[in-house]
Amino acid sequence: MTKTPTLADVARRAGVSTATVSRCLNAPERVQRETRERIEAAVAEIGYSPNFGARALAAKRTDTIGAIVPTLENSVFARGLQAFQTGLVAQGMTLLLASSAYRPDLEAAQIRTLVARGADGLLLIGHERDPALYDFLALHRVPVLVAWVYDPSEPRPSVGFDNKAAMAEMTAAVLAQGHRRLATISGHTRFNDRTRDRVAGVRAAMAAQGLDPATLTVIETPYGIETGARAMADLMTAPHPPTAVICGNDVLALGALRQARAMGLRVPEDVSITGFDDTELSTVADPPLATVSIPHGEMGARAAIMLTEMVRTGAQPDSVALPCVLRLRGSLGPVPRAA
């Protein structure tokens, strides 16, 4: 039977001590380049793999962080997670990723599975979930950081942005163009505090301008280009169609844009359309999509630093609010004269 290579075998092959090999594997920046290259070559030549299970037992940590996102089909989460993973690697941590498909029951199962597999901490999207899950995490002493939201009233730390305020700012820009008949195409608001806050932001901006928020037409639908298009068709065939459609994300807005063209409607001459997220496709849409740019990269990078610190020190950091930026592009224009 072939013997499994050990740390001592690497040390003999590289001509260094086992302590130097261990330091090179755990903190390579602390080892001189020439020595590091010899050790790395020895590791590759004999096929050595560190025993992370033994290390985890000794340290009572696995140096892994779990993250659960609602979907991997939307690039907005991918951009934030890339920055998050890059930050974790810099901290010597590994990312375990799961997608809940916007299902609370599946997310609950994933939280328990990640904890059972030894995740030292969890990154979750949004605050809203069964309080029993937070009790479970506290019982197992697994710190949790919430992203894509900012709500200082919540007991758990978060890094993200104020969804309600950001959407209210976009709505104010729409109202400044003279629009008064508004509609919103939104994702489902049940179990989704980000979506619910964005709809609330539209209503808050209307109220601030003396408009009745109850007049806002809201269609809730799963996120998707096809679903956005169907919702747009329903809105524009109503007896009093809106002059501006404020969408809960760019995917829905792109579907609305496509449907407007299919119905012979000019954007923004006949109807204005806005999105939220500032995905890459928003700039190449025809016309370019007015949207809200959210700080994906900074959010992911900050989350990595904050959650690693929570795991290693037990500290409870203050929540961090990051700014959003309006991108007022060609899909938003003045209210039509005939409206």
UniProtKB/TrEMBL annotation:
Keyword Disulfide bond annotated: no
One term of GO molecular function: DNA-binding transcription factor activity
Domain named HTH lacI-type: residues: 5-59
Classification via Gene3D superfamilies: 3.40.50.2300, lambda repressor-like DNA-binding domains
Residues forming coiled coils: none
UniProtKB keywords: DNA-binding, Transcription, Transcription regulation
Name of the protein in its database record: LacI family transcriptional regulator
Top-level taxonomy: Bacteria, Pseudomonadati, Pseudomonadota, Alphaproteobacteria, Rhodobacterales
